[in-house]
Amino acid sequence: MASQICFQAQQxxxxxxxxxxxxxxxxFPLTHDIDELIEIFDEHKIEISSNVRTAGRLTPFAVxxxxxxxxxGLLEKEISEAVKLAEDVIKWAKNILQADRSRLTTSRDDxxxxxxxx
Length: 118
Hints:
mainly alpha, Four Helix Bundle (Hemerythrin (Met), subunit A), 4 helices
């Protein structure tokens, strides 16, 4: 059970990172390596908070701990930390996506104001 919780935490964080990349139309490789995804954010100068930057710690849960018996005795604290980190990544991604949506809406509104036919 612990390995499945940590696997799901890794998946949630990975998908949150990928959602931001997709929304910004930034290509990324097929990977479960969160540090590799973070490098793409760095290349595109997208700010990542220091706690979210540590999400690479979740990467081993993508495969190594996905199957029953492979968790190797995870402690409750480690499980809680994995879930909290995934929650932090999701919150960060949600903030980025909302800010992008707000900028897009403002931009469209500005275009309409300048366009008598808009």
